Amino acid sequence: MLRSLWAGASGMIAQQTHLDVVAHNLANVNTSGFKKLRADFQDLIYQINREPGVPVEPDSMIPMGIQVGLGAKVVGTTRIFGQGSLQATDNATDLALTGDGFYQVTLPDGTIGYTRDSNWKIDANGQVVNHDGYLLEPAVIVPEDATDFAVSQTGAVSVKMPGEAVPEEIGQIELARFINPAGLRSMGRNLFLETAASGAPVIGNPGDEGYGTIEQRTLEMSNVQVVEEMVEMIVAQRAYEANSKTIQSADEFLRIANNLRR
Q1: Do 56 and 74 have their domain in common?
Q2: Is 248 exposed, middle or buried (0-12, 13-18, 19+ CB in 10 A)?
Q3: Angle of helix 226-258 relative to helix 3-27, nearest 10 degrees?
Q4: Which domain holds residue 152?
Q5: Contact (CB, 8 A) for 220 and 86
Q6: What is the pTM of this model?
Q7: H or E, element range at 258
Q8: CA distance 125 to 71
Q9: Based on the domain organization, do 45 and 75 belong to the same domain?
Q10: Cα–Cα distances in Å, from 65 out to 46, 48, 58, 69, 172?
Q11: In a shared domain, residues 228 and 191
Q12: Predicted pLDDT at 80
């Protein structure tokens, strides 16, 4: 059987995954804090018909071998943690991060999730939570009779109480950083989980060295660029088509061979 059949098939499968990644990016073009993915490819093993460097005489050797590759595969999807565009809002609980770091939330099982989603809410108990009701970690509880809610660029949370002229600080937002954020596990809902690949989180305050700052009344939007993704879609489509042509050509070769007459 011709190797090109299987090499072409592997290329088509890889480009299918490539298109899946592009489609996921485009689907989340308006998702707050979303970070786009990139498909990474790798060539498959080679069939060595002649080794390079084989000696043919005492003072000479074969300068190159015969190595035929067997196709390609997707070996990873790298998440690109570039800054998303900022969108000003009138919502006091919209807290965009500019720079490195992740907010922390407490999941129902007690583990900590990490997010760049900057769209926070205040529940009936005054707790700062995300869309799914997961608590911001460390917890921030807004008094019921507070008249204002403010967050500084360094994460200090303060409110104004009735009859008091000076705002009262009620909490401090902390951020987490990872030595390899691309190694975080995506769990959906704009959340990530720590893995052995990401390393342990390093906790600090916004504005500390290496950590981003907070912009209140602002959303960090997705860092997906629609034009770039449309180009990637065209590349995936054309590569898929080119790989299908190699399969058609290999099939034609087999047809010719099968029709040989003595």
Answers
A1: yes
A2: exposed
A3: 160
A4: 87-220
A5: yes
A6: 0.88
A7: helix 226-258
A8: 57
A9: yes
A10: 12, 8, 18, 13, 64
A11: no
A12: 95
Q: 251: phi > 0 → left, psi -120 to 50 → alpha, else beta; which?
A: alpha
**Residues 154 and 243 both lie in one domain:** no
Based on the fold, state whether residues 8 and 46 are members of the same structural domain. Answer: yes
* Same domain membership, residue 156 and residue 141: yes
Mark whether 216 and 91 lie in a shared domain. yes
Q: Is 121 helix (H, G, I), strand (E, B) or coil?
A: strand
Same domain, 9 and 114: no
Q: How many CA atoms lie within 13 A of 57 on its CB side?
A: 2
Domain count for the chain: 2
- Phi, psi angle pair for 72, to nearest 5°: -140, 165
Identify the DSSP state of 150: E
Q: What is the mean pLDDT of each run of 10 residues along the chain (262 residues)?
A: 86 96 96 96 88 80 85 94 94 95 96 95 95 95 91 95 88 97 94 97 96 96 96 96 93 87 66
Residue type, 150: A
DSSP string, 193-226: E--TTT---EEE-TTSTT--EEEETEEE-----H
Which residues, listed in sequence order, are joined to residue 88 by a DSSP beta bridge? 218
